[in-house]
TrEMBL record:
Its EC number is 2.1.1.-. This is SAM-dependent methyltransferase. GO terms for molecular function: methyltransferase activity. GO terms for biological process: methylation. Keywords: Methyltransferase, Transferase.
Length: 271
């Protein structure tokens, strides 16, 4: 959906950037506008590796969903900056366990429209409008209530969006509140950009997003700061690591892994 060939849908502003559409551009998608591409190119000028990083996150999604299906999880809740990709959560899970159910949560109209179209004929999936800063609204949404049994374990995926939410917006508190309502044995998978190995670009990249998203506060987080999102959860092996190091099919050296400065981990709610 290039803006050169198709007008924006109702409720979509082609003059306001969207994290979901920016991520789509990094992943090689076409569901983005000129304003999204302009911002993404500013990031790529500082960090050309950003495009490959999107692919590594998608590979992690496939590995982690498959792992948790094998562990017995049958309920999935993906929250955040998401647009359909080649291998979505429900497709990975239902291929291994057809009874699996998935709900996608987003606040971007393009993401919502695409998700609804993609899932229209899949009765075990659904789409809900919401943001992580309002966890109760997500869990109490009619679509979530219809498909997700909160008395049973669920896997929550928080990919590629916590890094854009400043501390003073209640980022940590919102994730903790969400976890409080999950059943024991539930899992939370998180990806988060960290700048331990790229301090030279940390503030410059943060400035691009702060300006675009009109969020003047907040700074880039380190690995240790991002790990705090797992407080109260038990990190499963190998812990909170660079995304390419989380149970890769083929071993990745430390030198190669840090080139993708996105950390990933999975926490299990004890009990």
């Amino acid at each position: 959906m290039s803006d050169a060939t198709q007008p924006p849908s109702p409720g979509v502003s082609a003059s306001t950037p969207s994290v979901a559409r920016i991520n789509n551009y990094f992943a090689g998608g076409k569901d983005n506008f000129a304003i999204d591409r302009e911002l993404a190119e500013k990031v790529l000028a500082l960090a050309p590796e950003a495009k490959a990083m999107g692919e590594h996150v998608q590979e992690f999604r496939q590995r982690v969903v498959a792992h948790l299906v094998e562990a017995g999880v049958r309920q999935f809740l993906q929250i955040g900056a998401w647009l359909p990709v080649e291998r979505n959560v429900h497709q990975i899970a239902q291929e291994l366990a057809p009874e699996s159910r998935a709900v996608y949560v987003a606040d971007d109209p393009v993401a919502l429209n695409h998700a609804r179209a993609l899932l229209a004929t899949n009765e075990r999936t659904g789409v809900a409008e919401g943001v992580i800063l309002e966890p109760d609204a997500i869990l109490d949404h009619p679509v979530t209530r219809r498909l997700i049994d909160l008395s049973q374990p669920v896997m929550v995926l928080l990919f590629g969006m916590l890094q854009y939410i400043p501390d003073d917006f209640g980022a940590y508190e919102s994730v903790a509140a969400l976890c409080d309502r999950l059943a024991p044995g539930s899992y939370v998978a998180i990806t988060h950009a960290v700048f331990d190995t790229r301090p030279d670009i940390a503030e410059a990249v943060a400035d691009i997003y702060r300006d675009a998203l009109k969020r003047p506060s907040g700074g880039p987080r380190t690995m240790a700061e991002a790990k705090r999102f797992f407080d109260g959860l038990e990190l499963i092996e190998p812990g909170f690591v660079y995304v390419r190091q989380w149970r890769p099919h083929t071993p990745v050296s430390d030198a190669e892994a840090v080139k993708t400065w996105i950390a990933a981990g999975v926490g299990r709610k004890p009990g």
